[in-house]
Amino acid sequence: MTSDRTPFIGLALMLLAAALGAVDAAIVRHVSPGVHPFVIGFTRALFGLLVFLPYILSRPAMLQSVYRGRHAVRAALKLASLIAYFFAFASAPLADVMAIAFAAPIFVTVGSWVFLSESPKALRVAGVVGGFIGVLIVLRPGQGGEVTAGLLFALLGALLTAVIQLILKPMSARDSTETLVAWNLILTVPIAAVPAALVWQMPTAAEWGFLALQGALGALAMGAVTRAFAMADASLIAPIDFMRLPFAAVLGYLLFAQAVPLTTWIGGAVIFAATLLTARSARRKKMSEV
Predict the structure, then answer these.
(1) What's the mean pLDDT in 236-252?
(2) Residue span of the structural domain in which 56 resides
(3) Which of 107, 148, 222, 260 could disulfide-link to 95, CB 3.0 to 4.6 Å?
């Protein structure tokens, strides 16, 4: 009976992670007037590490890795992607940023063709084209004459996320998920301290509270996603991640009076459908090779 419930627990964990992602974005938006995104990146890494530190210390064997410099490169890129999203959340509607973030898998597919010599298939090409159309719908370049800086930062965050996933692909073949998460947390703190020091202003007590909460929620979301993929098939739980968009839309409206235009919903849905299409193509390819 327990095994029958396991996929549903995985779904619940993924739904929790989607909700935490929206809360994370709302916290960034709330503290951004007084706290620089570089500082938010540092405190996010610091408090996230503090949450996971007891677990890491209890299992020191997880730190064994055949990769060294690559972990540092990945941590730096992960920090850069987070900071790009923090800049985006500070200046653009939360729902718009979330919609564009869903384009990361599309960029991963393109990167696999260019850098990993994977041959493009018709279904994946259709998914990529659809994904870019969805991004253009959300960006709305023809409305108002220009794309806002916040949405460009969101696009940069999605691109960097794709680069990180391309780096992770060969690493995950030899390092466990626990090892990858642990080294990312450990290395991000000193890397993030450098840019944070350049713009450092002591946060208020209330800001420290929100920053600590954000770091803890980020670590919790990371653990929830990892556990969710271990308990259920990716094809079952991955679509739940799209719930970040309505969660962010609700929080943006309730907390910051951000109205969500129809183009954001349409563009987000197109991007999400394109992502599912490329994922379906990858699954068909894997099944044909068995």
Answers:
(1) 85
(2) 2-289
(3) 260
